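Hi all, long-time lurker, first post. I run a small reading group and we've been trying to get comfortable going from sequence to structure in the token notation. Rather than ask abstract questions, I figured I'd post a concrete chain and ask someone more experienced to write out its structure so we can walk through it together at our next meeting. Sequence below, copied exactly:
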Amino acid sequence: MTSLSRPPADTLDYPFLRPEFFAALEDSGSVCAASGWTPHHLNINRDGRNLAFMPLYLKTHSWGEYVFDWAWADAYRRHGLEYYPKLLSAIPFTPATGPRIRFAEGADQPAVARQLVSQVIELAQDCGASSWHLLFPEQQQLALLETCADDPHLMRRTGVQYHWFNVNQAHSRYQSFEDFLAALSSRKRKMIRRERRQVAEQGFHIEVVGGDNISAGLWEFFYQVYHRTYLKRSGSAGYLSRDFFHQIGATMPEQVAMAVAYSHDKPVAAALYFFDSDTLYGRYWGCQGEYDFLHFELCYYRGIDFAIARGLHKFDAGAQGEHKILRGFTPVETHSLHWIANPGFAEAVGKFLVQEQRQMERYREEAAELLPFKNAQV
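-- Answer (accepted) --
Happy to help. Here is the structure in token form:
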């Protein structure tokens, strides 16, 4: 495993590229060869200076990625070929759009990006990887990589997520949750108020706690309900270990918050957020039982409250969930880049992605028509 070099402080705003985040994943054993995520992170160093860092993993499966290529792996298998191992540049278990290369200030980004891509392809050839996939890059780095990587050709894949934007019809930020509700149609405004009222009527006391004030006991509680919820939904344990959560709480508390629901002074459910100067990221959730609308309250409405209070531009509440649309979350495009070593499969995948993109564009347009705003924001 290569060093997780620390770049200048002004490049550390995005929480999921911080060395502390990767260290927590790897020190805790959540990400390792045994879990199918072997780290091969790339660093570009010159004259004793770290110019860039890009996460890279050798994968033996496709779990925990949220850009699904199981059909590609199956096609390889049916043709007597091996799809795994593959190379992946992504934030493990985190389908949040953001930078995927951490550049040092003043780095020649096009030149460094070309060097990174060249090193990835060389590694793929050395280790027999079928492909390389870079997931959820933000627009600037997406364009940079596409421009710098004409050979090898990187194919773009388009998906859809649902993000809440802190922008009202006057193109200024909301001043309160009620200000946000005022932008909705009467029917949807009443729906959200009814859902929040029913949470209150169940007797919950809810607090949003900053990372510095999340106790070891709360982190332990969160770990337990996170795993309980995974087991109930999928029949398997969650990806992240106990030590991951405790280490995150100790090493990057200034970018973490937790919404906790109490019943009779005991915690019963919680949602974990990360945030930077622009965006709130809703990441993990867990609950001890079934409670009406408590998931919506902790994972969405308290997040909107938090984003408004801090003046954040956006709330990325995670992958999937069409029910978010009716609660003010706009369908937006997400992207990934893919390199396939086998020319025949690369051609077939390229044709598939063209068709899939058309479908995604139609879906996003149709989904946007369901937005609850008085004048739909597309």
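A couple of things your group might point at:
The domain at 9-161+331-368 is CATH 3.40.630.30 (Aminopeptidase).
The chain has two domains: 9-161+331-368, 167-312.
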